[in-house]
Amino acid sequence: MTGLLAAATSASDKRAAFRAGLGSGRIQRFPGAFNPLVARLIQEIGFEGVYVSGAMMSAELALPDIGLTTLTEIAQRGGQIARVTDLPVLIDADTGFGEPMNAARTVTLLEDAGIAGCHVEDQVNPKRCGHLAGKAVVPVDEMVRRVRAAVTARRDPNFVVCARTDAADIEGIDAAVARALAYVDAGADLIFVEALRTRAEFERFRAAVPVPLLANMTEFGKSELIPAATLEAMGYNAVIYPLTTLRLALGAAERGLREMFAQGTQSELIDRMSSRGRLEELVQYDRYGEFDSAVLDFSLGRSR
Q: Residue of 20, 27, 239, 261 with fewest CB within 10 Å of its CB?
């Protein structure tokens, strides 16, 4: 059964691996997974972790990324994804879903779901997508209370609490640096500065904040898309690709559906599809069959 119905690696071991990875000197790459099957694929290909994006969750529900998803929805989907992968899962916890006490409860539920870490941001609640206009940030002391609540609530000391600041795009980089340092003093393990624009800005932030840093390489946003190796050379510790897999899948689905609508058949699309055999391989069909056979062959007499 090991690794069949659930990951072979325990939640505590995945958290320890995430924390060790942040200190390894090698950048930890976390593509977003919009379902558990994609998380399996991310692990098979060789990435270091899996990311669960709030923007992706919103889009999956056909909602805009304006804080409409709930803690229950995020924790449930995060748990479904964490269950099937041996990789650490980092999840987007928005603003902590309310006041500092809500942030504390958020961490406890995410720990229960097997998540390795989360990021909490300093936007006004309800938040907006970090790469769109109309954002606002809370006062520093309010975010400090969110971070302290999250850190205090964790039971596993290896659960990574990441503090995200959206201040660079609103108040400027110097203000974002000052906020980041305050969040580190409050106990944050990792800092995520949103919507930096150029390599020079990423380098400037890295030079000013001497703690583990996470970069967001989302497409169609404000940030220049910088290769992971370059971010690693700058000294960044982790990078997320929040919506890449969903955008790839949605683009392929739309093109295929339009062609099928026009042609009246999907026959010309077969070579663009993942095969039945590949799907069965990812869901480990054979191993379930082996387990089922073993159960059917079970005899009470032999077990005595």
A: 261
Domains of the chain by residue range: 11-249, 254-297
DSSP assigned state of 12: H
Helix (H) or strand (E) holding 148: helix 140-153
Q: E strand or H helix at 165, and its extent? A: strand 160-165
State the Cα–Cα distance between residues 278 and 225, nearest whole angstrom: 31
Rounded to a whole number, what is the largest CA-CA distance in the chain?
Answer: 73
Q: Take residue 101 and report the two structure tokens written for it.
A: 């006490």
CATH class held by domain 11-249: alpha beta
Which one, of 213, 219, 200, lies nearest residue 239 by Cα?
213
Give the number of other Cβ atoms within 10 Å of residue 258's Cβ: 10
What Cα–Cα distance (Å) separates residue 91 from each residue in 200, 249, 299?
A: 27, 20, 44
CB atoms closer than 10 angstroms to residue 286 = 10
CA distance 100 to 214: 23
The model's pLDDT over 208-255, given as tens digits with 9 standing for 90+, comes to: 999 999 999 999 999 999 999 999 999 999 999 999 999 999 999 999
The residues annotated with a catalytic role in the active site are: 51, 65, 92, 94, 119, 121, 129, 164, 194, 216
